[in-house]
Design goal:
By secondary structure, this protein is of the alpha/beta class. 41% of the residues lie in helices and 14% in strands. The chain is globular, with a radius of gyration of 18 Å. It starts with a helix and ends in a 12-residue tail after the last helix. Bound molecules: zinc ion.
Length: 201
């Protein structure tokens, strides 16, 4: 074997595919336009509950819609554990699929879009939002609701919404928050895996 052959050996992964679970694909086929914000959040909470019911990952879901008509462009659930992908948070998955749906890395290039998330974005997802091009972010549960069941949201600015608004991204918080917090507690009650980055020690 020559040097070139050795370099081509599949020693390291060189491609990555993210697949939405079958139950989610089937669910998305049924979704029509959702011009009502409450209904869009309701869909995302249903998806978070679905991810618990199918025991596939964390109790988080997100979706990207065109606004104002509420056409669903993409959805995501937390796929960290089943795909062995530490960054596959629901928001990241939804943003990635929305880029495929729109044919652009800039999710605002062909009109305003909205990311709806079942829980306020963690430090990583917050960082991704300005790069995504979405024009509005809507969240249901709060950071403290996630922390209350053991999830680490990472180090974020105290007023995360202000940092997005400063970049021209509209932020709407606490839509159906009580219901969203209950989704998180359900996951905890059922003994769902709480995974976090190592914090040392
Ligand atoms: Zn996140």
């Amino acid at each position: 074997m020559g040097v070139v052959d050795r370099m081509r050996s599949p020693r390291l992964p060189t491609a990555l595919a993210l697949h939405l679970p079958d139950w989610l694909v089937e669910r998305l086929d049924e979704v029509g336009p959702l011009p009502d914000l409450d209904a869009r959040v309701g869909l995302v909470l249903d998806l978070a509950r679905g991810n618990i019911d199918h025991s596939l990952g964390g109790p988080f879901a997100a979706a990207v819609f065109s606004i104002p008509h509420g056409e669903l462009l993409a959805a995501g659930v937390n796929l960290v554990v089943p795909t062995r992908t530490p960054v596959a948070h629901a928001e990241i998955v939804a943003l990635a699929f929305a880029g495929q749906r729109l044919g652009s890395h800039d999710l605002g290039a062909s009109g305003p879009t909205e990311l709806v998330t079942s829980c306020e974005p963690c430090a990583m997802c917050l960082g991704a939002l300005p790069w995504s091009g979405v024009t509005r972010v809507v969240s249901a549960a709060r950071d403290e609701d996630a922390r209350a069941v053991g999830f680490d949201e990472g180090d974020k600015p105290g007023d995360w919404a202000t940092s997005l608004r400063a970049r021209g991204i509209e932020v709407v918080e606490d839509v159906r928050r009580a219901e969203a917090a209950e989704v998180l507690r359900t996951y905890q009650r059922l003994g769902g895996l709480i995974y976090n980055g190592r914090t040392g020690g």
